[in-house]
Amino acid sequence: MQLDLAEIILGILGLGGGGAAVAFAVFRLLGASWIEEKFAQRLESFRHENAKELQQLNARIDGSLAATLRAQEKEFECLRECWAVAKSAEGHVLNFCSMIKSHPDLRWESEDRMREILAQLDLGQAQIEKIVRAEAPNDELADALFWKQRNEAFRAISEFRNFLLLNEIFINESVVGEFKSISENLYRAANNMEFSKEDSDQKLSRDAFELITKVVPHQFATLAPALRSKFFEQM
């Protein structure tokens, strides 16, 4: 009958001889293979625990890195789109606030020819008929184009502002501030241009032209390097 390990050790301890003697006796009794087997088991357990901890650490690192990459991708996407809608709004406001307006001369055209020309200007049918029947068709056309350009400018500004409002959480705060300042100046320029017509105030139209040709382009030029650094230095 195989002896219990505890009984064997107690028996050896009863013989005296101290810890070293006990250890040597246990080694002689059990043999090197048993000791090595136990050591191997402990080592394997240690390796397994370390592997689990390393796997968990890698998972946390991978998750954090993936979250960072997703945030950067979203920011890049928002910045690209925000720049596009901002520049589109700038173009529409510039067209609206231009000091030099040009349009076709309708004075010597027949009604059919006028309708043909006006159809190319993306005007509504009611507007076209109003211009054709007007005593001064050129003045009526200039007025129609003014309000058409006005509506396009404010629509583009609204699109820019709405995009920024919905996506500012994904964009750096200082960059959001720059875009907001641009949108405010675009709105001021368009607003001044509209009031200049209603009040026949040339100063307002000059102020609008100054904003859209000098102030806003300078803001874009100042913002561009910061955006380039985000797109290229972080790649």
What is the level 1 CATH name of the largest domain?
Mainly Alpha
What is the third-level CATH name, the topology of the largest domain? Four Helix Bundle (Hemerythrin (Met), subunit A)
Work out the radius of gyration.
Answer: 40 Å
Alpha-carbon distance between the two ends:
73 Å
| Main sheet properties | none
What is the CATH-assigned architecture of the largest domain? Up-down Bundle
* Count of individual beta strands: 0
What form results from the Cα inertia axes? elongated
> Which sequence of SSEs, written as H and E, runs from N to C?
HHHHHHHH
Structural description of this entry:
The chain crosses the membrane at residues 6-30. Keywords: Membrane, Transmembrane, Transmembrane helix. By secondary structure, this protein is mostly helical. The protein has 2 domains: 5-56, no CATH class; 74-106 and 140-232, Four Helix Bundle (Hemerythrin (Met), subunit A) (Up-down Bundle), CATH 1.20.120. It has helices at residues 5-14, 18-30, 32-97, 111-119, 125-133, 137-167, 173-199, 202-232. The protein is elongated.
